[in-house]
Amino acid sequence: MILRLIFPCLALLFGFCAPGLGYHNPREPLPVSRSIHWRSDDRNRGPFYGQPEQIHLSYGGDPSLQIVTWLTFDDTGESYVDYGLTKLTQRIRANVTKFVDGGAKKSIRYIHRAVMTGIKPGKAYIYRVGSEYGISNMFTFTGLKERPEGGYRYGFFGDMGNINARALGAIQKVSQDGEIDVVLHVGDFAYNMDVNDGSFGDEFMRQIEPSAAYVPYMTVPGNHEYAYNFSHYVNRFTMPNTNDNLFYSFDLGPAHFIGFSTEFYFSSVLESVQTQWNWLIQDLKKANENRKNVPWIITMGHRPMYCSTDDSDDCKFKESIIRKGLHGTHAYGLEKLFHTYGVDIGLWAHEHTYERLFPVYDRVVYNGTGNPYHNPPAMVHMLAGSAGCQEYVDHFKNPGPWSAFRSSNYGFSTMHIYNHTHIHFQQHDVSHDRVEDSIWLVKDKHEPYSKMDDHHLLKHGVYVP
Ligand SMILES: [Fe+2]
């Protein structure tokens, strides 16, 4: 009961909360007391491939909780995470689910999840995972704690594949060196995780391990996760306060993060758009009630509302579906919803570029003042989809007035949330080993945008017809 109070949706990790979606929940829980296919009176029988791999962390929704997820290709029975400060003094048994890929081979993977509890802020931990049939290397992480200079620093990006993952080495390095506290991967993994009966997904999860085994690796779904009802994405990752990783939220320090699926808007399952929409409203209401303690509201979604890329993606259209809602009815348009509830920042990807936007609402661009990022009267959008994949980078054509800075260099972004008022963004151009863009966002107040804000926006802004 105490555990449920500190982490009310811990139960979700173990698969017994009802899914809130039209999508079938494809995580298949295995009972603790299950009979294992290779276990028999024949003592010579054991699992094939019981070695744990693809170890990765995710934030448990509270700094005292660190989730670890890993994979084996056979059922190993009981599995554990062992962890501690200098010795492995704590053991938590994993929950195991069976994941059957939708490809021709119907290949099977066993996903192990455990929540390390009692994590002390700022303390360096060691841990390893596995079972009597194989244990992992020893990894380390540091309990989440505000930095000496203030706040938390996030690495964020999207659209990173197995092939041509140009920012991968830099992301691994900053993760291990303590230069970031959390990774935010805003959709599109591996290209694609389902390819070759899921072996692309395995390779992707192995290649992010040098980052994700050291800092929490937080995710939202993109269009490249679409196969088999997003089942690779749902099964391979473990986000807090959700049982399918499709939409969820968490607080860390002065920021409330909302991860959601833009992909529902491009599927035929309207129920999922509705379910997510209702959840978003409730979550945004709750976040606003708590704004005194957690002032920043930051959304993470894969496909952006605005962009300047030379392509025909949704963000290029005046009536972007993500921005304005479904064609014809304009139902479920996210821009108005986010404006109504005072969302400060939107993190996006999908375009294989970096683009920083001026504050903008309803195609009115706030670019007519000396410092538009000081108390902006509208949301700030940051696009970072140039981590690298086999589709290469995108280029720009006729950038809109919303485009404050843009680059087709491979890279990733960092966002340092110092406190209730100051955030520092940097774009890291990994090919040239330099910071190519940086900006301070300063907000003295965080609340739903007011009539005064709208007036201010119109007075100093430019409407883009
Ligand atoms: Fe995408």
From TrEMBL:
<keyword id="KW-0325">Glycoprotein</keyword>
<dbReference type="GO" id="GO:0046872">
    <property type="term" value="F:metal ion binding"/>
</dbReference>
<feature type="domain" description="Calcineurin-like phosphoesterase">
    <location>
        <begin position="153"/>
        <end position="354"/>
    </location>
</feature>
<keyword id="KW-0378">Hydrolase</keyword>
<protein>
    <recommendedName>
        <fullName>Purple acid phosphatase</fullName>
        <ecNumber>3.1.3.2</ecNumber>
    </recommendedName>
</protein>
<feature type="domain" description="Purple acid phosphatase C-terminal">
    <location>
        <begin position="378"/>
        <end position="438"/>
    </location>
</feature>
<comment type="similarity">
    <text>Belongs to the metallophosphoesterase superfamily. Purple acid phosphatase family.</text>
</comment>
<dbReference type="InterPro" id="IPR041792">
    <property type="entry name" value="MPP_PAP"/>
</dbReference>
<feature type="signal peptide">
    <location>
        <begin position="1"/>
        <end position="22"/>
    </location>
</feature>
<dbReference type="InterPro" id="IPR015914">
    <property type="entry name" value="PAPs_N"/>
</dbReference>
<dbReference type="Pfam" id="PF00149">
    <property type="entry name" value="Metallophos"/>
</dbReference>
<dbReference type="InterPro" id="IPR029052">
    <property type="entry name" value="Metallo-depent_PP-like"/>
</dbReference>
<feature type="domain" description="Purple acid phosphatase N-terminal">
    <location>
        <begin position="52"/>
        <end position="142"/>
    </location>
</feature>
<dbReference type="Pfam" id="PF16656">
    <property type="entry name" value="Pur_ac_phosph_N"/>
</dbReference>
<keyword id="KW-0732">Signal</keyword>
<dbReference type="InterPro" id="IPR004843">
    <property type="entry name" value="Calcineurin-like_PHP"/>
</dbReference>
<dbReference type="InterPro" id="IPR025733">
    <property type="entry name" value="PAPs_C"/>
</dbReference>
<dbReference type="GO" id="GO:0003993">
    <property type="term" value="F:acid phosphatase activity"/>
</dbReference>
<dbReference type="Pfam" id="PF14008">
    <property type="entry name" value="Metallophos_C"/>
</dbReference>
<dbReference type="InterPro" id="IPR008963">
    <property type="entry name" value="Purple_acid_Pase-like_N"/>
</dbReference>
